[in-house]
Amino acid sequence: MITSLLIANRGEIACRIIRTARAMGIRTVAVYSDADADALHVRSADEAVHIGPSPARESYLVGEKIIAAARATGAEAIHPGYGFLSENAEFAQAVIDAGLIWVGPNPSSITAMGLKDAAKALMQAAGVPTTPGYLGEDQSPERLAAEAEKIGYPVLIKAVAGGGGKGMRKVDSAADFADALASCRREAASSFGNDIVLLEKWITNPRHIEVQVFGDSHGNVVHLFERDCSLQRRHQKVIEEAPAPGMTEFTRAAICDAAVRAAKAVDYVGAGTIEFIADGSAGYIKADRVWFMEMNTRLQVEHPVTEEITGQDLVEWQLRAASGEPLPKKQHELSINGHAMEVRLYAEDPAKGFLPSIGRLEQFELDGSVRIDKGVYQGATISPFYDPMIAKMIAHGSDREGAREDLVRALNDSSIWPVRTNAAFLMNLLGHPDFVAGTVDTGLIERAGDSLMPPAMPSDDALSDAAQHYGRQALAGFRLNAPMQQDIRLSVNGQTIAVHMPIHDYIDQKPLAGPMAPPTASWLSEEGQTWRIEPLRVSGVASGAASDGAILSPMPGRIIAVAVAAGDRVAKGQKLLTLEAMKMEHSLVAPFDGIVADLDAAEGGQVSEGVLLAKIEKAD
Asked: Fewest CB within a 10 Å sphere: which of 149, 189, 493, 519?
C-alpha cells in the first residue's frame, strides 16, 4: 500500500483526497501557488510545497515542479485529482519515469481516449453503440458541410480534443454551418492547439448519462452504476444525481455492460467514466437510444453521488488499485441503495450573467445535514485565478424526492457573504416542475430561462426588517411630535429602494438614547440569495447615490481595455471598457445614448467592486 501521497491539485478535490488518505494512514503532501498559500488543502495536508505564482500555467500545470515537490518530500505517489494535469498522458508518463506511482490509468489509456474521433472509432470496434456522425480525415469545409447534409440537421460540431463544453457548436441549418465551423475551429485551436473536428447527429431531448467504471491491474473491470448529469449550463454540469430517473433495469444493464466493454477495450486501470448521450423524448431511457460520447480517464467532480448510493469510497479504490491491489468488490457485490443528488456551489452571480464573484468570505456556513465537500473556509479569499466552484453539497435519501427536499433545505439554511453564489439559482432549479418530475434533459436550463433567476430584490418582509433596523439606529433624539410616517431609503446591491413605514413599527414611544454611530452597510440573506444593504436616507438625512449613468465595477478585477475617452459620444450598448476577473472577460457598456462625462479607468489598473469607472450623461 502507498504510504505517502502528493496531491497535484487544489480546492475541494485536494481536500477530498486528503480526507481518505488520512483515514487510510497515508501521509499527504499538498502543493500550492502564491494565491493558495493559506488555502484549506494546504492547511489540511501533512506537508505543503510552494510551486510558483498564482496563474495555473506557472504552478499547477507545470509537471516538472510537481514531480520535484514529490521527490523533495519523499512522496511515493501522485494523485492528479481532476482538471489540471489529470488527463495529461505525458505528465502521467513523466511521473512513472521518475519512479513514482501514478494514481490513474495507464498513459496509453489516456491517449486512446484523449481524442474524441479516435475514441469513437475504438468504441465502434468494441461493439459499443456510438452516435451517428462523421469521423473522417478529410477536414475541408466542403466535405464537412456535405457530411452534415447527409447526417441531417441539426448537427453538432465537436473539437476532437475538446472538453468542458469548449469547441462545440450546434448547427440548425446549412446556412449557419460555415460560420459555426470557423468559430468552433478558432476556439479549439486556441484552447487545445488542435482544430480538427467531428460531426454528430444532434439528439432530440438529450440526456447525459454516464457510468462509473473501475479497473485493476489484475484484469478486473466493474461498473458502479450510472449517474444523470443532464442539468447543464453552457455544457457545464450543474446538478448530478444517481441513479438516473426513468432508467429501467433492462436499459441499466445494457448501458453498464457497454461501459465495461469500453473500459476493457483500453485495458483500463483505476477510476474512469464512460459518458453516453440518450434520447429522452420517450419520457424514459430506451436501451436502443443510447450512444457513447467520450470517456473521462479520471475521477469526476460528481463521484460523491456514486459513493452515496453504493457505500464505496472511490478515492480509496483508486489508491488500492494504484498500489497493485485487486478491486475491493466484485460486480455481484455492488448494489444501489436509495438516491443521491449533488449541486455545485459556485462563487458567481447569476444576476450578472453568472460572473465569478471574488473576495473574502466574511460569512461561510453550509448546512451540515447533508454531505459537504468544500475547498474553502470562513475568512478565506476567493481568488480570480481558478475555477469558482467552492463546494459541493450532496444529499442521500431513501428515494429521489427525499434527497431533493434535503438538498433544497440545506441550500436554504446556508449563509454566504459578501461573495455571491448560485445557491438561489440551484434552489429554483431543484424546484422546477420538470426536475421534480424527473423529466430532465440538457436543454432544461436554457428553456427555463429567467424563471430560474433569483429575485433581484429581497422580499417586502425582509426589506421591512432592514428598514426597521436602520430606523432604530438613525432616529436617536426622535420626539413624539415628529411625523409618524417615514421613508427609509436603502441601497440594495446598488439600487435605491424606498421603504415607507410607520415610525411606531420600529421605535419605542419615547426618545431613543444617544449618541449613536451612523448607520453602516450590512448584509441580508434570504433563500440562498444575499444582498448588500446600506442606508441612503433615514429621517431626512441623505447620502449620495449613483445616477443612472454611473458605470460601476461589478466585481474586483483588472481593466484590460478602455475603448472610449472623456468627452466621447457613445450609443446605447457601446462597449466602454473590459474587465478581466477569474479568467473571464466582462464588457461594460453604455446604458443609453450620451456623452462620457467622466472616466476614471486605465488599462492595466486593478479595481475593487463597486468603484465608479465612468459616468455617462444623456446627450441633448
From this structure: 149
Cell of 416: 454566504
* CA angle, residues 357, 419, 165, in degrees to nearest 5: 35
Q: What is the pLDDT of residues 467-513, one digit of tens each?
A: 777 765 544 444 444 444 566 777 776 667 778 766 555 444 433 33
Query: Could you tell me the domains of the chain?
Result: 4-103 (3.40.50.20), 132-201 (3.30.1490.20), 344-436 (3.30.470.20), 460-542 (no CATH), 550-618 (2.40.50.100)
Q: Which three cell numbers stand for residue 433?
A: 416542475
Q: Region of 598 please: left (phi>0), alpha (psi -120 to 50) or beta.
A: beta
Backbone phi and psi for residue 460, each to the nearest 5 degrees, phi listed first? -60, -40
**DSSP 8-state class, residue 58:** G
Question: 134 with 144: CB under 8 angstroms?
Answer: yes
What cell numbers appear for 276 in the block? 453516453
Strands 221-233 and 236-242: antiparallel
How many C-beta neighbours within 10 Å does residue 36 have? 27
What is the SS3 string spanning 367-425? Answer: CCCCEEEECCCCCCEECCCCCCEEEEEEEEECCHHHHHHHHHHHHHCCEEECCCCCHHH
Residue 456 CA from chain centroid, whole number: 22
Q: What is the DSSP secondary-structure string of 203-239?
A: PSSEEEEEEEEEE-TTS-EEEEEEEEEEEEETTEEEE
Question: In sequence order, what are the residues at sequence separation of 6 or more whose Cβ sits closer than 8 angstroms to the Cβ of residue 12?
Answer: 373, 374, 375, 389, 390, 391, 392
3 state DSSP class of 521: coil
pLDDT digits (tens, 9 = 90+) for 88-124: 999 999 999 999 999 999 999 999 888 777 888 888 8
Instruction: Dump pLDDT digits (tens) for 513-555.
Output: 333 344 566 777 788 777 777 776 444 333 333 346 888 877 6
Which cell goes with 198? Answer: 467531428
Task: Name every residue whose Cβ is closer than 8 Å to that of residue 433 and which is 6 or more positions away in sequence.
Answer: none
Among the listed residues 227, 289, 298, 404, the single catalytic one is: 298
Task: Report DSSP letters for 262-294, one per residue.
Answer: HHHHTT--EEEEEEEEEE-TTSS--GGGEEEEE
Grid look-up 505517489 returns: 77
Query: To 5 degrees, how large is the angle CA 211–CA 7–CA 83?
Result: 45
Cis peptide before 591 (omega within 30 of 0): no
Beta-bridge partner residues of 272: 213
Cβ contact 263:279 at 8 Å? no
Question: Cell triple for residue 460?
Answer: 417586502
Q: Are 346 and 422 in contact (CB under 8 A)?
A: yes
- Catalytic annotation present for 298: yes
